Amino acid sequence: MKNKINSIFKMKRIHQISGLLLVFILFTSCNYLQPNKEENLSLEKDFKTVKIKGKYQMSIPNYMKQTNQLNDEASLQYNNLFKETYVIVIDESKEQFVSAINEAGINEFSQSTIESYRDIQMQLLRENINISNEKISEKKTFNGMNSEQVAFVGKISGVDDEISYILTFIEGENDLYMIMGWTLNKYSKKYTNTFLQIADSFKEL
C-alpha cells in the first residue's frame, strides 16, 4: 500500500512536506508569546475574504499576511510569524485523484472519495511527523460539499516544540482540497476556534 501511494504522489508530496518542515525549523525559535485564553474573532470585523484563481474563497484573519514561504504546492498561504499561526490550502483534480487510486488498487475497501483522500494524506504526513492525539470529527457537509476534519499533535525532528494541526478535507465539484492550519501546541487552545472559522468559511466559486 505504501509503495503504491508513494508512486502516485511522490514528487508533489515531497515538496509539500519539505515546505512544512522548513517553516518550523526557521521560525519556531522566534516566538516570545505566552499561552492565553481562547481567541474570539468576529467574521465580520476581524477577517478578510481571499479569493483564489476563481476557484474558491476563504476568510482569513486580518492579522495574517500572504506569504510564499510555506509550501510550493499550496494555492493559498497565510501566516503570522509572531503569533505562530499558519494556514495553507492544497487543491488537486478530483478526477485525476480518483483515477490514480483506482489504477493503483488503493480504494479496495470502497471508501468514499473524501475518506480515501484523507487517509492517503494522513499516511504521507506520518512519514515525516510523529502524530499523537489524533481525532477525526464526524462526517459533515457544508455548502453542499462532503468534508472530513482531523486534529492532531505532531512532533517533527529538529523542532523542540510540539505542533497542533487542524486539517480539513473537502470534496468539491471538480477538485479536492486540504486546508491545513497549525500553531505550536502550547497555543492550541488559543487558536483552535480561529482555525475552525477559517475552514468553515470555505466556498467554491
Automatic annotation (TrEMBL):
Database matches in PROSITE patterns: PROKAR_LIPOPROTEIN (PS51257)
Gene3D superfamilies (UniProt xref): Mog1/PsbP, alpha/beta/alpha sandwich
Domain of life of the organism encoding this protein: Bacteria
Protein name: PsbP C-terminal domain-containing protein
Organism per entry: Aequorivita soesokkakensis
